[in-house]
Amino acid sequence: MPSGKRGVLLIHGNQRLLVEDELKKMQSKISAEDEDFNLDVFEAGEDKIEDVLQAADTLPLGSEGRFVIMKEAHKLSASDVKTLGKYTENPAERCLLILTAVGLKQSAPLLRLIEKSGRVKEVSKRRDQIPGWIRSRFTERGAKVTGKAIAYLHDALGDDLLAIESAVEKTVLYNEGIEEIDLDHVVPLVKPTAERSVFELVDRVAIGDSDQAVKLLRALTQQGEKASYLLFALSRHFRNLLLYKALREEGRQEPDIAARMKMSKQQQWTLAKKLKPQAARFNEEGLRKALSILVRVEMGIKSGEMDEDFGLELAISSLSRLPR
Hints:
The chain is an alpha/beta fold. The protein is built from 16 helices and 5 strands. It has 3 domains: 3-122, Rossmann fold (3-Layer(aba) Sandwich), CATH 3.40.50.300; 127-195, Helicase, Ruva Protein, domain 3 (Orthogonal Bundle); 202-320, Zinc Finger, Delta Prime, domain 3. The chain has helices spanning 16-28, 32-37, 49-57, 78-89, 109-117, 130-140, 147-157, 161-174, 183-186, 198-206, 210-222, 227-249, 254-260, 269-279, 284-303, 308-320, and strands at residues 7-13, 39-43, 66-71, 95-102, 119-122. A 5-stranded parallel β-sheet has the order 2-3-4-1-5. It starts with 6 loop residues before the first strand and ends with a helix. It catalyses: DNA(n) + a 2'-deoxyribonucleoside 5'-triphosphate = DNA(n+1) + diphosphate. This is DNA polymerase III subunit delta.
């Protein structure tokens, strides 16, 4: 492994979606063989820093180097950062340790540590870059969009890129077959009060962002979304994650998976962008447990044994904490 690929790299920013996109770019450069045998992925708050560093110290198998990823590094405790500091003084010669973090302050001990002894990549978008970014999200889905529609989305949802991503997805799905998406196609689907969609809610839950998921849940219920529909949307998404994982483990490629999941061309982008990274966070047992939790909550609400708001927040909290 070249010397530039060793040590510790911190990817951080204030937009979770940009941090995750940057990590995906790096992972796309890892060979399939290394991904199978020389890549370990951990999550702060779920895994111990000692296990992460032990993986980093492990010799690569049949390769020049190995890769270790720790997501959500902003959740590391002060003692964890201190332990990490000892590792950065003498990092493994044949490993690249990649940390991702969201919302770090400039004074954060983790950021100061890696600035001194590793490499830091901050990812961000200036406000004037967001319209071009919105257009690129439509283009990725094979859809054309007018400048008026882009401006409306930006005004309605501000700089919350994950909310914009969900709105783009919803707009494309609802307007399949339209030659060019215009303002009239967007306005009925996205409210100027920065209304959050169910699409974004299920994504937040699947990536373990329970704080934002609960905020979205409360906004959606205040807007009149029914508990039954929200539970249905969560169940459908976790069933899709389980099916995707099963098909991948059978060795099936994405075109075959898309066909078996009956996805339209406009939906197929979700395989690589959403289902693959989200499914990687869970093992099969975790996904089956997620579906069991949703069934129990639904039965509790229907029987009157559980308040709707309590049941939904309990489900989201439980799903966000499930093991990888």
